[in-house]
């Protein structure tokens, strides 16, 4: 039939260097471990150096390379230093996962200016300057890269009592599209992952309340919660050559929460 010879896609990340902000707990921990499993050298970052070192050592015990670097994503200079230390240790950066985030549960009319600023600075400003710092190095390297920004299903739909969180995560979606347009000429892709509810140490207690859990499940198409490994798998796909055609994309890894 004269079919063309196919080049099989690969998820192999051997030789790649990845940074994961908020990489010591919950979803970020899963991303750090799974990216390493598929071959990447991983720089694990959070605000606590001891936590970073602990996860980095766990990765090293598997025979892979890792580095723990303290970084508060609210501070631009610390993000710049994070990328600098990565390049000093591994010689390059190929994958930047902007995962660090937080939320404050309050009604719109009850939220203070300081609380609003804290959420937006962490979830949106941190992504902006984290991606920019990594992209500058990727452009200098001249062989492309992957920017993966973690938003939320809350960035696609409104949710009561977390207005600042939803606004910041919606900003990440739009920001990623702009990054895709600006950096595509350099072979750098920028994509967004929007997780739904996944049990972690942060939300474990609320999700154990039957009424809360049932209400959340009722809004999902799959009628279940997600897992840390499932979100990490999506991030790994976007980090790999298998996703090379995708940029500016929104991956709703949310069990169908945003289908309605």
From TrEMBL:
- MF terms in GO: oxidoreductase activity, acting on the CH-OH group of donors, NAD or NADP as acceptor; quinone binding
Q: Which residues does the UniProt record annotate as the domain Ketoreductase?
A: 16-186
Tell me which UniProt keywords the record has, alphabetically. Oxidoreductase
The cross-references to Gene3D superfamilies, in alphabetical order and at most eight, read:
NAD(P)-binding Rossmann-like Domain
| InterPro entries per UniProt | KR_dom (IPR057326), NAD(P)-bd_dom_sf (IPR036291), Sc_DH/Rdtase_CS (IPR020904), SDR_fam (IPR002347)
A Gene Ontology biological process noted in the UniProt record is: fatty acid biosynthetic process
Which Pfam families does the record cross-reference, listed alphabetically? adh_short_C2
Could you confirm whether the keyword Protein biosynthesis appears in this record?
Answer: no
- Can you tell which superkingdom this protein's organism belongs to? Bacteria
Which family does this protein fall into? Belongs to the short-chain dehydrogenases/reductases (SDR) family.
* Name of protein: NAD(P)-dependent dehydrogenase, short-chain alcohol dehydrogenase family
Specify the species: Dethiosulfatibacter aminovorans DSM 17477
């Amino acid at each position: 039939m004269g079919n063309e010879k196919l080049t099989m896609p690969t998820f192999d990340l051997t030789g790649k260097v990845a940074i994961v902000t908020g990489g010591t707990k919950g979803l970020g921990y899963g991303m750090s471990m799974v990216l390493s499993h598929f071959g990447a050298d991983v720089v694990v970052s959070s605000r606590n150096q001891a936590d970073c070192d602990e996860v980095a050592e766990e990765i090293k015990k598997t025979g892979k390379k890792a580095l723990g670097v303290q970084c508060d994503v609210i501070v631009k200079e610390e993000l710049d230093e994070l990328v600098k230390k990565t390049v000093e240790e591994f010689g390059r950066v190929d994958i930047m996962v902007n995962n660090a985030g937080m939320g404050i549960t309050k009604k719109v009319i009850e939220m203070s200016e300081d609380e609003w600023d804290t959420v937006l600075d962490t979830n949106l400003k941190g992504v902006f300057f984290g991606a920019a710092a990594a992209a500058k190095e990727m452009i200098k390297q001249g062989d492309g890269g992957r920017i993966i920004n973690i938003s939320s299903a809350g960035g696609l739909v409104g949710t009561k009592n977390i207005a600042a969180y939803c606004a910041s995560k919606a900003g990440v979606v739009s920001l990623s599209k702009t990054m895709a347009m600006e950096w595509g000429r350099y072979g750098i892709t920028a994509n967004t992952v929007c997780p739904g509810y996944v049990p972690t140490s942060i939300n474990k207690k609320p999700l154990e309340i039957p009424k809360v859990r049932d209400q959340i499940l009722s809004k999902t198409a799959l009628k279940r919660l997600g897992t840390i490994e499932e979100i990490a798998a999506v991030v790994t796909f976007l980090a790999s050559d298998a996703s090379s055609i995708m940029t500016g994309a929104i991956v709703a890894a949310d069990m169908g929460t945003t289908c309605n």
